[in-house]
Specification:
The protein is α/β, with parallel strands linked by helices and 350 residues long. 37% of the residues lie in helices and 14% in strands. The chain is globular, with a radius of gyration of 21 Å. The relative contact order is 0.11.
Length: 350
């Protein structure tokens, strides 16, 4: 998602070029409908000998395309090798130990934490081919993920099946995260859900997460019921792909969740957002979108160990997450929705 501003910049710089994006299956929906791309190649994600055979065939396919330039935004072992396999005369990547030789042009990537947004780090790779290119802003180069018609139709059918009408105030609470350093406790999410579900009669809350964390979402639902939430007001949806999530976020009144991939998908819409930060910071990982849109950030504040590299919790208590009060998140969500109502009212022409 955070490479899409760079994709937009490349299209502006090379309007007549053929731009192809190589991506693994789970992230393919992010770029499949990108208006600046001509083609998307999906690299199957296999294991063992099957992966070696598939990657060898993919490398030959890419070489036959005769690319003039390859930019490796990922920098991992697989992407480095595939960049080399293309045989492109210009291959740009980060100066990573053991793999930098696979590129013809290498860009320094300092180790350790830097208070610099990830989009700017991606932008560094463009400097080799577009010298003097000014740094992007969220307003000039926002993240992009257009809604896809099939996903929109699936969402319409699902909401109808749940009895959720167009007048409902949809609150999406994403309770999952890819690693334990970004998982706010289930008990805390449950308190937020219970508080939000009882404040307005037409409010409906949809709990989302990936299929592998479906039990976590169900735990949040059960705990919220114990805290007084109505079963009618809550729905668990753990089978949505990224395109489905994009459609859901576009219809909702607010997104509440941790600093994770779905938060960046939500950033491609106009939805008011409440993002919970643990060991990460808004400076580096905040939603990259027009600042005129409503965004609230919640964190524990200053800690000696925060931010960290998310490899081991030095204090051992994950205090950066557990120290965030549910009441602060509830207040941020209500404030975000009220700010959006005010913003929309001010835009009405009478």
């Amino acid at each position: 998602m955070l490479t899409t501003p760079a994709v937009r910049a490349l299209r502006r710089a090379y309007p007549g070029a053929r731009l192809t994006y190589l991506v693994e299956p789970q992230a393919a929906p992010v770029v499949e409908a990108n208006p600046h791309l001509d083609a998307v190649v999906v690299a199957p994600l296999l294991s063992g000998l099957a992966r070696w055979r598939t990657d060898a065939a993919l490398g030959l396919r890419l070489r036959r395309e005769r690319f003039d330039m390859v930019i490796d935004f990922h920098g991992g072992p697989r992407s480095s090798w595939l960049a080399l396999a293309t045989g492109a005369p210009v291959r740009i990547g980060y100066a990573v130990a053991g793999r930098g030789w696979m590129y013809t042009q290498r860009v320094a990537r300092p180790r350790g934490h830097r208070e610099r947004h990830s989009v700017h780090n991606q932008w560094d790779l463009l400097g080799s081919v577009l010298p003097g290119l000014p740094l992007p802003t969220p307003a000039s180069h926002p993240v992009e993920m257009p809604e896809q018609a099939p996903a929109s139709a699936r969402l319409d059918a699902r909401l109808r099946g749940l009895g959720i009408g167009s007048d409902a105030e949809l609150v999406v609470v994403h309770v999952g995260a890819g690693n334990e350093f970004r998982r706010w406790p289930e008990e805390s999410f449950a308190e937020v859900v219970a508080a939000l579900s009882t404040s307005r009669p037409n409010r409906r809350i949809i709990l989302t997460t990936g299929a592998t964390q479906a039990a976590r979402a169900e735990t949040v639902r059960q705990l919220a019921l114990i805290r007084g939430a109505s079963s009618v007001s809550m729905t668990v949806a753990c089978d949505l792909d990224l395109a489905d999530l994009r459609s859901l976020f576009g219809r909702a009144a607010v997104f509440v969740g941790g600093d994770s991939g779905p938060a960046h998908i939500a950033a491609t819409t106009a939805i008011p957002m409440v993002v919970i930060y643990g060991p990460t910071t808004v400076t580096v990982w905040g939603p990259w979108r027009d600042p005129a849109l409503v965004t609230e950030s919640v964190d524990v504040g200053s800690l000696p160990c925060r931010p960290c590299d998310q490899r081991t919790c030095e204090p051992g208590d994950f205090g950066c997450l557990r120290g965030i009060r549910p009441a602060a998140v509830v207040a941020a969500a209500e404030r975000a929705m009220e700010r959006e109502r005010t913003r929309r009212a001010s835009n009405v022409i009478v």
